[in-house]
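Review box. Two proteins, two foldings.
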Amino acid sequence: MDIGTNIYTLRKEKKITQAQLAEKLGVSEQAVSKWENNQCAPDVSLFPIIANYFGVSIDRLFGYHMNSYAEEVKAIMQSIEIETQSIDDRIGLGGTYKEIEILTKGLEKYPNSPDLKISLAFSLSMVNRISEDENERKQASEKAIKLCTEVVDTCGDVNQVDNALNMLSRIYGETGEYAKAFDAIQKISAENYAHRIVETASTYRLEHNDSALRQFTEKNLFNSWLAADWILQKLSSRLSEIDQYSESVKFGKLHLKLLSIFDDGCHDFYSVHKFWAAFTLAHNYRKLEDKPNCLEAIKQLFHFGAQINSAEKNRDHHISARNPMYFADMDDPEAMEEYMLEISYEPILPSFDKFFDGDEEYIRLKETALG
């Protein structure tokens, strides 16, 4: 019965100091410190006060039924779908009101649950979207904001705080408070950076800031694509290094698909990245002694090499000039396409020459590519 440790954990989850807890309970800071160090326990009369302050049962304060707490909250969440199945207006206000009823009762039992607070905030935000009563919409939004703010201010779980901030940004965006929406977005942790990107775009859309939305989308589309390019390259290369050639082929094929998604706007967009992805793929097929697929990868290799070595190639490295279809409004000076100006085959072909060992199709292909 480690009540001191449980008080410490609950205090940290609520993000308050020993002094702040002591003030709320009407005891000294030293008393709280002694509890948490298990030097002594609170007076029995304080148990219900402490439990109520943290929004937990006395059983949980004593460390009992910790798993059942999480399971019961999960059961409340899962009951929503069952309880709303018989409601004709399930996706309208009828179903939403039922969700609010269930979640509100759940919070009465577990008033400190971030899951229930965020879920209730979402249901309330739906009232704001679909109710025709202006006063009802306003009250629902205000309550949703309050619930999310409580999670941000008191929860020690980064993901839960980010979920609350994400919900806050949506509510503020939908109520036209765009500055507050952007402020909430900026507070989302780096761990959930994807939320920042999506909610920023969403807020620009709600704000009807079309120019900002276009530029933001282009920049983050390119950066996200480039990040996926690099992590797939690192993974497929590493799998090849440890002789997992079949796995490397799987991710290598995906890598080439990714690198081709902007071909509609520029057929030789990032040709060097495509060239080396095709090389890794050909290398893996060679290791697997798969001549037909290796030859297909070699064809791709030569195709991309020809694009790079072409005298007519556009020498403007800036992405907006390279691919105006998707990046016309991208003026970031750092967004430069990286590619070599010339490809030399001499260092990479000997291993394939030996592998194909006089194969006529390979010889013709090589002679055509090398001129």
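Next protein.
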Amino acid sequence: MVWKKGLLHGGLFLVTFVTTTLAGASWTHGTSVFSGPFTWTDFASGLPYSICFLTILTAHEFGHYFVARYHKVKATLPYYIPLPPLPFFFGTLGALIRLKSQVPSTRQHFDIGVAGPLAGFVVAFGFLWYGFTHLPPPEYVFQFHPNYQVFGLDYANHVYTDEFMKGGADVLIGKNLLFLFFENWVADPARVPNPHEIIHYPFLFAGFLSLVFTSINLLPMGQLDGGHVVYGLFGYKRHFQIAAVVFLVFLFYAGLGYVDPRAGLEAMLWQVPLTIGFYFFALKGLGLSPLNTATLAVGIFALQHGLAFFVPGITGYSGWLLFAFLIGRFMGIAHPPSPDETPLNLPRKIIGWVALVVFVLCFSPNPINIRLIEP
């Protein structure tokens, strides 16, 4: 039985290693296994991305695992989740461990929850430090975009237009505070890549995606890692108050501008009820009555719609809508109380605040924007 479980975990890891390597080759070098000949050299070009990404992911999950075992809480090895290396997929949805016995105390919940993101963050910081201190010359991007060379190093002022990129895709990476630190204080300014080209720098791109995963895990809601941290720092009641406010702000920002108030009546007739219905189901995690949930859904939409009307062009990040729905509908906003709610001691409180700082450093309001341009 044990060897079967080992085969399952090892098999999932190997499949995820392959899919992330294929995804890395596609993202960083534009060589897809689905289009034309694909050689072992092409496969190897995706290794820096997959090794970086999976090392950070593994550090995160084993941070949870080893601390759980330390507290004698039964836990599985990580289940890696592969994704097919389709265009704009990252090769994996991450990984998770399952706790197979009850976590008896607030302190143990906190320790297990905080260990993963802090371990992953430390490893991600190391990869990003290496990536930013070993940047290639700016001409590096010409091997992926030879048509940029006609503009020289001034290409950024010419190429990111619909006319120039007809039939292509423009991928823009958002910034977070940690990236700004590396760009302004660590890297050679002459070699810092354009945000549109970071996908071709595997350590930077994989490190950035890992920071996005870390920030999602550290959202202070429900039983996410950040939820465990806030529950440990503030207790059951305050946790729910904080989580509810954060969730409402998160949902509001995610859907801001998604429905254009200047769209025609025909579009509005189906967009408005669908959006309000989506909010209704996402907000069920707050545990309100159906009437109050519906009222809150309508209120959020009305505020978004009014703001978008008076401030044309203002938008949030619709990519967060899926996460808001999953958290609100399936994972829940509240944190279940622990049998033993002994408050955290001072060292744990300090670690908890450090984890919240890590969340602020890693979170990017608009992490990645992909724009497909018509031929």
